[in-house]
Amino acid sequence: MSETNSAAAEPVAPHRYTAAMAADIEARWQDFWDAEGTYEAPNPTGDLAGDPELVAKPKKFIMDMFPYPSGTGLHVGHPLGYIATDVFARHRRMTGHNVLHTLGFDAFGLPAEQHAVATGTHPRVSTEAAMDNMKVQLRRLGLGHDKRRSVATIDPDYYKWTQWIFVQIFNSWYDKDADKARPIETLVAQFESGQRPTPDGRPWSALNAAERADVLGEYRLAYASDAPVNWAPGLGTVLANEEVTADGRSERGNFPVFKAKLRQWNMRITAYADRLLNDLDALDWPEAIKLQQRNWIGRSEGARVDFPVHVGDDGHMDAITVFTTRQDTLFGATYMVLAPEHDLVEKIVPAAWPEGTHDVWTGGHATPAEAVDAYRKQAASKSDVERQAEAKDKTGVFTGAYATNPVSGDRVPVFIADYVLMGYGTGAIMAVPAHDSRDFAFARAFELPMRCVVEPSDGRSTDPAEWDDAFASYDARLINSTGEDISLDGLGVSEAKARITEWLAARGIGEGTVNFRLRDWLFSRQRYWGEPFPIVYDEDGTAHALPESMLPLELPEVDDYSPRTFDPDDADTQPETPLSRNADWVDVELDLGQGEGVKRYRRETNTMPNWAGSCWYELRYLDPHNSEKLVDPAIEQYWMGPREGKPHGGVDLYVGGAEHAVLHLLYARFWSKVLFDLGHISSVEPFHRLYNQGMIQAFVYRDSRGIAVPAAEVEERDGAYWYQGAKVSRVLGKMGKSLKNAVTPDEICAEYGADTLRLYEMAMGPLDVSRPWDTRAVVGQYRLLQRLWRNVVDETTGEATVVDTAEADIDEDTLRALHKAIDGVSQDMAGLRFNTAIAKVTELNNHLTKTDGPVPRSVAERLVLLIAPLAPHIAEELWRRLGHSDSVVHQDFPVADPAYVVDESVTCVVQIKGKVKARLEVSPSISDEELEALALGDAAVVAALGGGGIRKVIVRAPKLVNIVPA
Q1: What is the dihedral of CA 950, 952, 955, 960, to 10 degrees?
Q2: How far apart are the C-alpha atoms of 195 and 197, rounded to whole Å?
């Protein structure tokens, strides 16, 4: 940093605002705020009507996305959102709101566990040390958090309730008739009464305990199942779809991810797909985030169709069920494709190739089983994105089985191919190669027949053998679509869809249905450092939830924190969890209060994903010390209940990164809806207003090897960049320790003070836009605070220099500058436009700097109040030096006088034939009629018209008159 920019190099008067003075001021006021409980937000007690004063006061619940306590601490990019919400919260307090603003820690997760594996340090020790360091850094920024409400997901008193919520979800099912979750007991009652038949038709009383558990498992919102999962051998754990990158690698660690079939816990989030989609409309969220959620949920309307298929050699029949949005093209289905992971694959594969099987279908294998096994291994090594890529060469293999097209009766061969995924529809497709490009390419590669059933409208023939690609259209007519008792020929697509859907339903082989891209949420992790599942298994393997009296189930102490990891490229491996090696914890004798006395059980040895604790933390902020309930209903209703303009309730403002669009945000919405359905909360949605802040970027400098070099040691000479005498490249990117370009807030606070850092981060640009960090530019905001200080305080004596002047005696220019600033800053604060708010404060401050004589007290006080949300420490100090004994935090924000906000006059442009002929100074409130008369009477306008007629006069008071001559 150059001498000219260094605070330490500037001449110092005894009471000048310097970095040292800023440090003293900031530390004193931070201590004062803590001691006085300045930021503590009161809760309503008991019935809301019992505290009318609090109820009458508007409230604001303002939140930041949970930070993870990194051992490396904060760099200046991290606090951007925290400072922004703090500024907004401070302004809301000053406008009469009861503001809840606090911050906790999302403290379970992989980094602490990996650190424990490497060092032997317990994850709790390293995590708590990281939290302590971050708390010191955040406190130094002067953030106005209610510290009584801070939580950490690793505290047993917190994750007791995470486990409790899991039990509620486990003990619930989704009642489609009621369109909501209900307790599992209501489902049991339906089975017991016969209202709902069991799957095999036996009475409920005839089922044993294990059979009943299996039936209920098909309905529970939290359930364990054997299903295809994303297995990362290099991490030793499975991952949710959302945790796998587009190139098929783990989001954490960048390890290869494979498809494997394992027994894992899942959340039936798909039951809420429609509600998750529909309720987006009422949320005040960025449209880009809504679109991502809509696309991820992926709703599509179509039909379910069953294709009969032989299973085994005994003639037994099953059905391949497909979902299609083009059921009108059913007559054109000439083959079928299953995802390699489909459950039916192993069942339908015959012992030998059927007579007449094409060589190109077999993949060169002697038997169908060999071909299928080899292809499945090949497909498991590909990511979903790779499998769906529009590759020129389509791959697949014939299963040896044939299905029957239900409308034509034709035998159609059944293949497996990696372009069909279990994650969409049913994991099976009816292939209509004449009218789908991927099916067309596959059919050409495997010499499969094609049938044109949609009449081409582009001049081509109806013989697909002559085509270069498929013909797809929603406007054409159906052809070649007549069966024994149905014909679609001549119908349009919509009419044909309706007719075939009705035909399928009448025969019990299909129905109109809605499909979603969304899959159930994989909820198991093979880790140590996470919430233990409150689940035990009896000797039959049936899962039982622990009663609330046994919560929290705490993590045991272990010697080895690592899951068993494998060669990252070895897909043929199985998870082994750290908890499974702790036999004394795993095998237990318990009385679960079910009337069966003490029995032997085995604990679940997976842990919950790191998303679990952040699915509901907004609720714990409301009532963090409640040991009897998740949250007091009256408190939840007060802070998060539905209001006018907020029909689903939720947090008033939630600020965080856009990267959580389909992870945390989707999961939290799901948990909120379940808790709402079960009557535990009044808010259907967790977050009403969402705001995505941008990113603070920094230049990354790399040497000739591509290695990052310390940014602070790079010199700029003649438009190039040099490090230790060698030229280096520069590119704008992320800020981070590994890139050697991180700047810590501690450095800036030491050099200039926290208020300067706050102002600089807010002044860099619009909050939702990424911006580059420039340490050299920080000094600009430091000088603003120095000028502010000099406008109020004598640098020699330290006394206030303001004068008591009646409002009527203050010059009009100053009053206009003041009230325009108040009006503009008020609007900018409400709109989170903090950069322009600072610009308006700067403009007012500069006006006062140029004014002769001392600043009027009433102007100085309002200037201090304007900057208080942005730079709270210096505002508190100046407020005290102006003679006030109470804190600036809860003072009323200034209100603008409209008379001084409106300009005395504005310039009106008068045009004739589009050319400016006159400029008039007029009142901002002038009417159209007055302005027209004034313009037509202006000497320059009269001369320009030259006595000619006027065809039309267009008036846009007060700034424009456009005259059209006759």
Answers
A1: -60
A2: 6
Give every CB contact of residue 925 below 8 A, 6+ residues apart in sequence: 902, 958
- 616 DSSP β-pair partners: none
HSE on the CB side for 916, CA within 13 Å? 8
pTM value? Answer: 0.86
Helix-helix angle 754-763:779-792, to 10 degrees: 120
Report pLDDT for 828: 97
Residue 787's SS3 state is helix
Same-domain status, 509 and 396:
yes
- How confident is the model over 547-573, as pLDDT tens digits? 999 999 999 998 888 878 888 988 888
On whether the CB atoms of residues 258 and 233 are closer than 8 A, the answer is yes
Closest to 805 (Cα-Cα) out of 868, 861, 880: 861
The distance from CA 573 to its chain's CA centroid, rounded to whole angstroms, is 33
115, 913 in Cβ contact below 8 A? no
Asked whether the beta carbons of 840 and 825 are under 8 A apart, the reply is: yes
Strand partners, 230: 239, 259
Size of the chain in residues = 966
Which residue range is the domain that position 878 belongs to? 1-36+777-901
The CATH number that applies at residue 482 is 3.90.740.10
Same domain, 559 and 447: no
Q: Please check whether residue 75 is in contact with residue 745, taking contact to mean a CB–CB distance below 8 angstroms.
A: yes
Residues 838 and 911 in one domain: no
Q: Is residue 71 part of a domain?
A: no
Tally Cβ neighbours within 10 Å of residue 646: 19
> Which residue ranges in the chain fall short of pLDDT 70?
1-11, 46-50, 313-315, 383-385, 388-392, 423
98 in Cβ contact with 60 (< 8 Å): yes
295: number of Cβ within 10 Å:
12
| Residue indicated by tokens 């050319």 | 915
Burial of 199 (0-12, 13-18, 19+ CB in 10 A): exposed
Amino acid residing at 475: D
* Rama region for 741: left / alpha / beta (φ>0; ψ in -120 to 50; rest): alpha
Is residue 901 within 8 Å of 819, Cβ to Cβ?
Answer: yes
Spatial distance between the Cα atoms of 71 and 83, rounded to a whole number of angstroms? 21
